[in-house]
């Protein structure tokens, strides 16, 4: 059988899966700190003698967009947004993972948490003692006002890192990790702002346009599918007549 | 089936939940002591189909991998405990907590409950209660014939008795605070209950130890900001719409496919 139909199939398969990437980005349009996944189509040569001119198509999608999201004022003390490039570090198992989401909360023991993960400070997970007020400064230093005290005293500092986005990938939980699996070193130059949250960096327009164009791509693949079918049918008729 | 359809479904569902929270916030825009709810989302787990660097069938290393997301999920709702605007009501039994802290009442099931709504009342036995009739803890009894009740910033309740020039001290209101107020369980009726997530309450005198002061004759309004909710509502509606668009694009693709093979 002509290999056209298999080439078409690889194209159609890629479009279906690319649609999944864009659907996921759009579903997370309102997830704070979410970084859009980038999807890309790759030509892949078929190995073997006589196939040199044949290329199949495959989906590559493990890159993450490093564009910054819009900042929203929320007024909550434990909402922190990164100003400019940088990432927060959270504890994941024995290692570390990174994220741009800064909607922290405290658990009953005073540990600073991001969802189910403890937030990392200079020397491990951050724990805040009893306090009546908490402030997070631009360099990530967390100060508290102990009950009965007037002055704020620093207790810990958020671990902030500044890697290149190209050196990161998402893990199964959607947190960012270094491609080589190593923990990143803290960077002093990262700035944060308390009382605000960074929204998702998904561009709705871009995702919609991509979705529509992928749907049309798929239509084209189906047309080719039909012509491959037509050609095979014509061949069959030649034998019958 | 086309997985994009299920992913869009999670997006549509999430926005549905968000709209419900916005509707509740807007409905409570005039509820004294109400704290707005905020819906938080997170991305669902990722399918890592091929690790970068995995060996392909022809022996070459794949330069990059495939990771496909599965949509979004509502992690939970957070009560946002920023303070609401103060409204002056000039009622002697209205109090506002300026700062942190909750008034403790005896909850409907006998367990302590906490509230920031300070519309106090006196019941038939002369006890101070909240607007729902739940008794304030520690209990304070206003004797019959008491006139001009005063509640000081530190919670001291005093009243003048008829025929007596000096005011009588009747008792002191206390406030409770939690390390993580967001973890409190909202019971409705403006009251909250302690949970494992909120931590144990620490009790104190108003104005001391980081607790707020009491202001008599004022009420703390709801902290819902109408404009913010409206903007959120528009965003939720449009996100809903865009996710439905992807849903129909995915549906169209399946239609092309079934037509091609017919």
**Strand count, sense and closure of the main sheet of chain B?**
7 strands, antiparallel
Number of helices of chain A: 2
Rounded average pLDDT of chain A: 88
Question: Roughly how much helix do the residues of chain A carry, as a percent range?
Answer: 25-40%
Number of domains of chain B: 2
Helical stretch count of chain B? 2
Instruction: Classify the beta-strand content of chain B into a percent band.
Output: 25-35%
What's the SSE pattern of chain A?
HEEEEEEEEEEEEEEEEEEEH
Q: What is the general shape of chain B?
A: elongated
Helix amount of chain B: 10-25%
What is the global morphology of chain A? elongated
Euclidean distance between termini CA atoms of chain A: 20 Å
Low-confidence stretches of chain B: none
Number of domains of chain A: 2
Report the order of strands and helices of chain B. Answer: HEEEEEEEEEEEEEEEEEEEEH
Strand order of the largest sheet of chain A: 6-5-15
Question: Strand pairing plus helix content of chain B: what structural class?
Answer: alpha+beta
Oligomer state equals heterodimer
